[in-house]
Amino acid sequence: MPVADVRLGSGDHALNVTSIGYGAMSIAGAYGSMAEDAAIDLLHHVEERGVNFIDTANIYGDGVSEQVVGKFLDGRRHDFVLATKVGIEKGGGVGQRRPRGDAAYIREQIDLSLKRLGTDYVDLYYLHRVDPEVPIEESAGALSELVEAGKVRAIGLSEATGEEIRRAHAVHPVTAVQSEWSIFSRDVETYVLPTCAELGVGFVPYSPVGRGLITDHFTPDALGEGDGRHNFPWFQAENLPLNQELAEQVLAEAAALDVPAAGLALAWLFAKAHGLGVEISPIPGTRYAEHWDELQAGLGAGGAGVELDAGVIARLDALAEQVRGERSFKVDWVSGGREGLIPRS
């Protein structure tokens, strides 16, 4: 399974990463429990498939994800491009947390993350959510100070609007923006992705298979107790049946191409990114090695996306407008909500 290299960002703040990265939220219990040994085995599997880009966050499992990733990286930190995040303060669980982006908090949290990760620097440090009470310039300035201190190589933003990206980029070059983007979630195409293309900022799509919905394996029974997807409108009882029907259309397209549905979802992303002039490295997450291989099948022979014809792309493009429910339980937390692209219920 070849994996191409891509370049996120430009100039002195660019990072070379594999065209797919591993999103390590899954190993911290977001979709169900996972033993530490099993998580480390899965990370080794991803490594064996040629992937060197690992994405985590301080909030995933309240630090558990960072700790597991740190154990995996022990003794060979420099073989990987490591990203983590700051900017969501622990509250009463999903839906009860709050964005926090003040400089003091960012300075405090980087040291805690570095300790858990067992390293003295991270390659890419994201502001996980934009704090509505803190100017983005202050948050970007604090991240810039960490670059100067040698604790961070490059800075990123997650779920920032096009305007917020521009304002932060004026303080310090932004290397990557991470936001949700998939066949079912398209709002970033209006403002965010054109801004990234204009500024030379890389893009890191999270949830590229719709939190597992756009795969060959999803069933409602997969949503066990404690599964965080219960909090997302797509998966609620009034919305899920229709959304599953739409996912079945993706599965039919994938079957006709003899690729897994998850692989087709990634191939679609690469095709769309090429058209928009943006370099991407999606970061799907899974707890299963075989599911990872299905994802990576979407990279194709060249390692940067199975080639899709215009008809397939057009049919997949038509699905997003039919999806029922919004992509987030808090629309103000995501870029499309603040840009007026996601209606408030």
From TrEMBL:
GO molecular function: oxidoreductase activity
Keyword Oxidoreductase on entry: yes
Residue span, NADP-dependent oxidoreductase domain: 20-319
GO CC term (a single one): cytoplasm
Keywords attached to this entry: Oxidoreductase
Signal peptide (UniProt feature, chain positions): none
Pfam families: Aldo_ket_red
Source domain of life: Bacteria
InterPro entries found in the cross-reference section: AKR, Aldo-Keto_reductase, NAD(P)_OxRdtase_dom_sf, NADP_OxRdtase_dom
UniProt name for this protein: Oxidoreductase
